């Protein structure tokens, strides 16, 4: 059992590089073998793949211009030129300055330095990845039904809690089904609703130590997300639906 945990830790540590094709062949083979036998790590891999595809397909993704690449290469060549020996003792900081200039240009091209995301930001990205993955894989529902008395019992024995399931068809948000998903390190319930042609994923899981929190909304890569906590349950609603209509959906769920 201890060895399995070590394998998972190593896989999770190398997974971002593996997704980007930046690990060596031996490491890639080890990761692939582990993903074939570990459901949790395979799910994490799918999450990162879906999130990567969503970012590349969004309007926020931009490729660095060729002119920037040329400037960086020129700066590197300039920094690599040997300094005449007679001037080394007078200008020892020239090499350092050139290197710093190169770093500054790279940082400018990237737009901003990388900052480790906060826990809420990581969870929001994970929720969005789950939503996008369900659309890309054509796997919206494990149980397809507009009847809450069919959807709710389907989760029995599959989760350690019973999610509240409501059909809001009369209010314009019909229930279309449900499925199992994996978020925040645990299995969760995903209820699927529809608003005309827009899909809404409502993720639900228990948080025994959490207090009630009012709904908070954010926009990520063109998708709207609203999350709140009530009666020790966490709720995340995500969709490409406009903010006003998604907030209306959330108010109906909360009632």
Spell out the CATH superfamily of the largest domain.
Answer: MucB/RseB, C-terminal domain
- Measured between the Cα atoms of the first and last residue, the distance is 45 Å
Strand order of the largest sheet: 1-2-3-4-7-6-5
Number of strands: 7
Please work out how many helical segments DSSP would assign: 9
CATH names the topology of the largest domain as: Phosphorylase Kinase, domain 1
Task: Give the percentage of residues in beta strands.
Answer: 15-25%
Rg to the nearest angstrom?
24 Å
What portion of residues is helical? 40-55%
Shape: globular
Keywords:
255 residues, alpha+beta, Phosphorylase Kinase, domain 1, 3 domains, 9 helices, 7 strands, 48% helix, globular, disordered N terminus
Structure description:
- It is globular and about 75 Å long.
- The protein starts with a helix and ends with a helix.
- Helix 4 packs antiparallel against helix 6.
- The protein has 255 residues and is of the alpha+beta class.
- 48% of the residues lie in helices and 21% in strands.
- The chain folds into three domains: 2-57, no CATH class; 66-110, no CATH class; 119-254, MucB/RseB, C-terminal domain (Phosphorylase Kinase, domain 1).
- Residues 1-5 and 111-117 have low confidence and may be disordered.
- It is built from nine helices and seven strands; from the N terminus they run αααααααβαββββββα.
């Amino acid at each position: 059992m201890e060895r399995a945990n070590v394998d998972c830790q190593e896989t999770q540590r190398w997974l971002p590089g593996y997704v980007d094709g930046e690990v060596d062949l031996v490491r890639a083979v080890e990761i692939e073998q582990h993903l074939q036998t570990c459901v949790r790590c395979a799910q994490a891999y799918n999450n990162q793949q879906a999130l990567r595809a969503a970012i590349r397909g969004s309007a926020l993704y931009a490729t660095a211009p060729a002119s920037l690449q040329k400037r960086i290469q020129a700066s590197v060549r300039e920094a690599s030129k040997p300094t005449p020996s007679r001037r080394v003792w007078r200008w020892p900081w020239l090499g350092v300055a050139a290197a710093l200039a190169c770093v500054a240009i790279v940082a400018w091209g990237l737009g901003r330095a990388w900052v480790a995301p906060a826990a809420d930001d990581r969870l929001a990205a994970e929720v969005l990845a789950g939503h996008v993955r369900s659309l890309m894989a054509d796997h919206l529902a494990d149980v397809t039904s507009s009847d809450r008395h069919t959807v709710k019992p389907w989760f029995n024995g599959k989760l350690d809690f019973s999610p509240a399931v409501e059909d809001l068809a009369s209010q314009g948000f019909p229930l279309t089904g449900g499925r199992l998903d994996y978020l925040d390190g645990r299995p969760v319930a995903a209820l699927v609703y529809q608003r005309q042609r827009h899909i809404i994923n409502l993720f639900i899981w228990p948080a025994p130590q959490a207090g009630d929190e009012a709904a908070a909304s954010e926009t990520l890569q063109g998708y709207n997300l609203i999350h709140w906590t009530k009666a020790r349950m966490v709720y995340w609603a995500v969709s490409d639906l406009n903010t006003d209509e998604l907030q209306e959906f959330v108010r109906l769920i909360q009632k």
